[in-house]
Amino acid sequence: MHPRPSTFSIVARDPERDAVGVAVQSKFVSVGSVVPFASADAGAIATQSFANVAYGPDGLDYLREGHTATEVVEHLTEGDDEAPSRQVGVVGQDGSVAAFTGEECFDVADDIQGEHYTVQGNILENHETLEAMADAFESTDGGLPEKLLAALHAGNDAGGDKRGEQSAAMYIAKPDGGYDGGNDRWVDVRVDDHEHPIDELERVFKIYDITLLERETPDETRSLSGATAEAVLQTLAELGFYDGEPTSEFDDDAVEALESFRGMNNFENHSLVVLEDAIARGWDDADGTGEEKLVDAIWNGLSRLERL
């Protein structure tokens, strides 16, 4: 018999962006290759416990045919002899939500549904894990990525996976959301094996967000100056992008160094003016040191702008 990953996940929809997605954590290597399925023209599905990965594509096909999430769950499980060992969550683009937890799933195993989302887990430390995930999704501001990540963090903090942590993933589909609008793969990040996979997933997502996701154009921008400019130049100097003596003035040489940093990290999705503005706004709230702090500052500064 295949191993049963101890897993908690959330499947959710953002009706304003037509986005649907899954976030998941498990004591199981590369959970992102097993649990999450999403398609902008159908919905999103998480298949877990003694996972039947056919539930993903088959369930999305049922959603495309016009079946509700409840009907999809029924279709998937009724002909499956191993259904008592399965767990699945479904959210359709039509707004329907449903889940199934087989009676043979290892405790604590359960699911909770709310408007636009379902959370489910098995081999959990406690039922509070699911309650915390639901509360976090409902109360967190921001877009669907922020709400999904908040749910994972809250579930883990409340007890999480009884066997521990290993991998995590977030997959969100949105019409024309993929690279250069060529497909619907809007957000697709995963951590296959890590001591703290949810923290690492968030770090990777921030880089992904800056690099690949577009934001609205700001009405006004700030320039770097004073102590923040000096600290940023010191960081750019330590990273080898700036040769001068760091000062409180962000002059032409400083802008050139920032341009080199932008190019090296593939951040051309944002103009230099917007990037400088983001650093100026986000520096004081950024975590880490060196390049990590620069990236976190950019992400924090961009977060005031709506994703497109």
TrEMBL record:
<feature type="domain" description="Putative peptidoglycan binding">
    <location>
        <begin position="211"/>
        <end position="270"/>
    </location>
</feature>
<keyword id="KW-0378">Hydrolase</keyword>
<dbReference type="Pfam" id="PF08823">
    <property type="entry name" value="PG_binding_2"/>
</dbReference>
<dbReference type="GO" id="GO:0016787">
    <property type="term" value="F:hydrolase activity"/>
</dbReference>
<dbReference type="InterPro" id="IPR014927">
    <property type="entry name" value="PG-bd_2"/>
</dbReference>
<protein>
    <submittedName>
        <fullName>Uncharacterized conserved protein, Ntn-hydrolase superfamily</fullName>
    </submittedName>
</protein>
<dbReference type="InterPro" id="IPR029055">
    <property type="entry name" value="Ntn_hydrolases_N"/>
</dbReference>
<dbReference type="InterPro" id="IPR010430">
    <property type="entry name" value="DUF1028"/>
</dbReference>
<dbReference type="Pfam" id="PF06267">
    <property type="entry name" value="DUF1028"/>
</dbReference>
